[in-house]
Amino acid sequence: WKQKNLDFRAMDASESPTKRGTKRKSAAEATQIVQFLKEVDGYTPTIPEEVTRYYLQLGGAATEDATITKLVSLATDKFIADIVHEA
To answer: Please, are residues 67 and 40 in contact by the beta-carbon 8 Å criterion?
Structure first.
């Protein structure tokens, strides 16, 4: 039986080596998500946000969060672009 070389100095008592690697990956993913959301804030959708908000409300998913509205607008733009591209 060989003991693995593990660095336990950076871990607290509740962490295992597997969890530590997951935390690093989660931190990198969180950084990517934050960067993506910053880019979404600067995005001007093809369909006006008022129209997106109206249809969200009509569908029972009303929100006042501008980021959510922009994300739905971005997904809608992608959907429309895919349809136009296939036509």
So the answer is: yes
For 19, other C-beta atoms within 10 Å of its C-beta total: 13
For 22-59, letters b (16+ CB in 10 Å) and e give: eeeeeeeeeeeeeeeeeeeeeeebeeeeeebbeebeee
Long-range CB pairs of 62-69, under 8 A, 24+ apart, other chains included: 66/41, 67/37, 67/40, 67/41
Each residue's pLDDT tens digit, 58-85: 999 988 888 889 999 999 999 999 999 9
